[in-house]
Queue: 2 jobs
Job 1
Amino acid sequence: MKNNFLVFLVFFLTSCNQVMRQYMGQVLEQIYLTMAKPSTPLILISIDGFRWDYFDKVETPNFDRLIANGSKADGLKTSYPRKIFPNHISIVTGNYPSNHGIISNYFYDADFDEYFYIGAGSTAAQDGKWIDAEPIWVTIEKQAKRAMIMFWPMSDAEIMGIRPSKYYVYNEDPTNLDRMDQILSWLLHTGNARPSFLASYFSVVDSKGHSYGPDGDETIEAIRVVDKAIGHLIDGLEAQNILNEVNIMIVSDHGMTETPDTKVINIADYINLDDVVTVGGGPFMEIRPNEGKLESVYQALQNIDNTQVFKKEDIPDKFNYKNNNRIEPILLLADEHWSIMTPGRTPIAGSHGYDPDYQSMNGIFIAHGPAFKSGFSGPEIHNIHLYEMMCKILGVVPANNDGS
Ligand code: AMP
Ligand code: ZN
């Protein structure tokens, strides 16, 4: 019966003239939008810089509870470069950074003649013109469901003319518990106002990891702090009687490794800085030689101990990092623990952004709720597949992406 109706509809639409077709398309879209219902809520939480093995460093009773009754991957393989913005955007679009356009935390776009940069107060990070792929919250809102987000990179930007139903401009004032309280209070909405997708973000594990290294006492304390925040979320969901009726995914964007100040490569020891523009520094540095200097600069960067150097077109396929104008002509990449710096700069205790093969760069994936197996432990997965997975769970049609 349904099939007969569809055949009729297709026949009818193809036989109408263009104006009629357009009109009918709009009517059908309106019917579809009114009929769309909220999905079982999916709560996505990111813990910046939570390395795959941090659960072993300290007691984490609240994570353990979700893991015991849910699913856990051995690690979340993240996309190059292992920095917050490229990876958070890979998670929510399913694209590698070179395809979604946020190729790093800091980069130059020649067409805009502007630099992208991040941090509280960054106007670039709130500007949708930088992103070339559709985040899950846009997919959701386009399909008449609601997304409510208290901090996720670029959730405070208008993208393709769409914003989440609720969002906050990024700032570091609200505590982790405030963030969980906001999620819990959004879940009290009913009917068509009920959110299908909710997201939030914690920065403390990353910031302590940078300042004190992955084994620092303060970093370990930060793991405890976010475990308590997750406990607060669980308690709140139980109080609303919906702990087993919502899906929860907890992820991170990358890992962390020690970067001692004894392992520094001073770029000025190898090239004349007047010949280039350097972009970034630390685990990697991108380099834009001045006109006519590409070959000599590239040759001068050969054979620096503890580094690899690539011309853009020769970056190995495993990086999935090539086809974007924003990537600079030369990539100088340090081995784990090493930092590439301009003169006068020194590394702090921990960092991330190295080669995709270092396990220390892996993040986490744990999940709980009706969409996930209970007590299931699986192998590493790659973060570009999470967008498709979320679309499937939420019952929405995904936009084009690199995942499956
Ligand atoms: P990373 O070291 O690559 O993990 O970057 C972490 C930094 O990203 C944090 O210290 C914040 O300043 C910044 N950050 C986190 N979320 C946002 C956001 N939504 N908008 C702008 N900057 C952010
Ligand atoms: Zn970081």
Job 2
Amino acid sequence: MCGIVGYIGQPRRAEEIVDILSLLEYRGYDSAGISGINDDGCKIIKEVGSISNLRKKIPQQWSVTNAIAHTRWATHGASTLQNAHPHQSLDKKWIIVHNGIIENYKELCSRISACANISPNSRGGGTDTQILIEYIANKNIDTFEDFVKLFQDIKGSYAIICQNTQKPNELYIAKKNSPLYIASDKDNNIFLASDPVCFSKYTNVYKTFNDNEFAHIHDQKIFIVDSELRPIIKESSKLKDDFVEQTKLDYAHFMLKEIYEQPDALRRQVDFYKEQKILSKFNSDFLSRFNQIKLVGCGTAYHACMIGVKYIENILSIPASAEIASEFVYNTNVFEPKRTLYIFVSQSGETADTIKALNIQKEKGATCIALTNVAYSTLSQQADYCLPICAGPEVSVASTKAYTCQLSALYLFANALKTNEDLEKAYNNIVELSTKLFDFNIETADKIAEYISSKRDAVFIGKNFDFVTAREGALKIKEITYVNANACPSGELKHGYLAIVEEGTPLVVVATDEELNSKVFNSSSEAVARGAVEIVISTDDHECKYLIKLKKINPLLMPMLSIVPIQYIAYKASILKGINPDKPRNLAKSVTVE
Ligand code: G6P
């Protein structure tokens, strides 16, 4: 995962480079560092933990003309200062920031003499990046051409920016399977980053590196080549304005802001889809090309896939299935791949497993749609079609508004494939739904948060749509409160999960379907008989300690409504436990490694 930044140009305060880096914190916050060059030479500063820790160590007067910076999500090697980037070669010549994983780092290590000090088996425990920079140093590279050729030896994924301390006006860049963008402002200052949102303060025009491309920046000129050293001329793209804003406004955390943005986000999506005729190509003729639909994603996006399956089967009566991307890559036996429509769901559009799954299916000739929140993302670029979700930037690690927008996009999509009339009704339904999202008792939700935050475990149950909401709710609780929350279909409670229940265990019961509620409550009463405390989110009255009563609405729309109180409860419980819900431990917003 990780995020990288590069700069070369007029003297600029190092603090400003750190500001740019902070826009990448969603990619990891285990440690951060910067290497800056000016007339006095080169200085590297690193710190463990979030970028705010690094910021405290940056001298105010430190100005740089060449800088590389990194925010880390630890993959190889613990989250220590020693493992923080940038890494410098032992001969002090090369400095690197790297996002990705060098798969053959052990083999590279065995080929170099400096290995004894940095070997992954040594006490210091060299990381893949430390070994790579040592490998580069050991190859005695003189020219950019040598640098490019050296990558024939490197296996894995990488977005890399290298400084050479003997060439302070230059940067060397390599990219494969990890995103990297480049831009220059009106004064010809050059910026590089893992996300073009980083450039927004300086310019909204940027260029995207493709895989196996390399760049040499020298004397404020950008020279891009492929692996055969053939020059490449690149088209520029423009950043959309709504990706620029990333402030909490008056909210204590991004997560709370994002929860409350959901009504606006849903309406914005409807307006955008109508104005831009986003769904016009997805009609019954389009559908007739396929005999099944598969939805693929990870984490919250996978839960959106599970709901999407139900939309497709209910609205279109065509077989559909939801697949976890990291597992689906091993499913080699898809029946009639060319008659299969794939929808890859991903907030970021950068999740490595989802991208890999897409590439495998594309090779088989399948039709692929990317449903993402980031129009310029890798997934969007590689798919045949894009369905934007218009949630606006989602910063908090736990996904909230992206989830409801994913559900609404899938609901609109399924209706579009049916008839125009159904689509028009669906638009109206979403707009009406958006006015109801916060029609629940906040005081009760606060009390539930207090109760859950005091417990070690929690069990979530539901049936059909409500089971998916239970899963997504349990994930929210787990991610940002560290309470061991598990979800199961209520019918499965007796097949194992009941063993977790003891006196006081919170049992979150999602029961919003009139036809199924009595069955769900039958199951929950078995848990109550064993000491569980019921927390019920339901359209029905139910005698229990905590009840969040929801209005009855169209069952297909309910998953967008019933998840909101749980998102809010998770947020509040996280605060009560003293956790920063925007940056929970061990997680990252964008998971760009397999
Ligand atoms: C991480 C995030 C989750 C997200 C998942 C998939 O685990 O913390 O919030 O659901 O990745 O991310 P994607 O960007 O593909 O939706």
